[in-house]
Amino acid sequence: MPARRRVDPQQLSDAVAAVGGWLDGSAGEPARAELAEAVRLSLRTLEQVAPGHTVEVRVAPFAAVQCVAGPRHTRGTPSNVVETDPRTWLELATGRLSWSQAVEQGRLTASGTRADVSGWLPLLG
């Protein structure tokens, strides 16, 4: 499988800015395509800054990536999984929400000893 093209930081910034009003609570829910673009680009950015195949980060219904160096997951359910919704993910990626707050509020699940990806967040400020 060929490597994915690197995410252009400006493209990520633009995609997140397009949904920024929704994240801040000053605008209604964005179009599905805008939300999907922001989630996918931010997940691909995480994949770039934390390369590997140890942790799977899932943001349904838009995307999932494998990241973090270490033992490679190849079959069945990965042992290190992070699952959350698009809003929570983008709040984490932009620094609007901390990892510990998201966990305490039950807004994400992180299973496995290596599933904490907070060291790579936020992805942009």
Q: What topology emerges from the helices and strands here?
A:
Layout: H1 9-24, H2 32-49, E1 55-59, E2 63-67, E3 81-84, H3 86-94, H4 99-104, E4 108-111
Parallel strand pairs: 1-3
Antiparallel strand pairs: 1-2, 3-4
Helix pairs in contact: 1-2, 2-3
Describe the structure.
The chain has 125 residues and is an alpha+beta fold. The chain has one domain: 2-Layer Sandwich (Nonspecific Lipid-transfer Protein, Chain A). The protein has four helices and four strands. A four-stranded mixed sheet has the order 2-1-3-4. The longest helix is centred in the first third of the chain and has 18 residues.
Descriptors for this entry?
125 residues; alpha+beta; Nonspecific Lipid-transfer Protein, Chain A; four-stranded mixed sheet; 4 helices
Short structural description:
The protein has helices at residues 9-24, 32-49, 86-94, 99-104; strands spanning 55-59, 63-67, 81-84, 108-111.
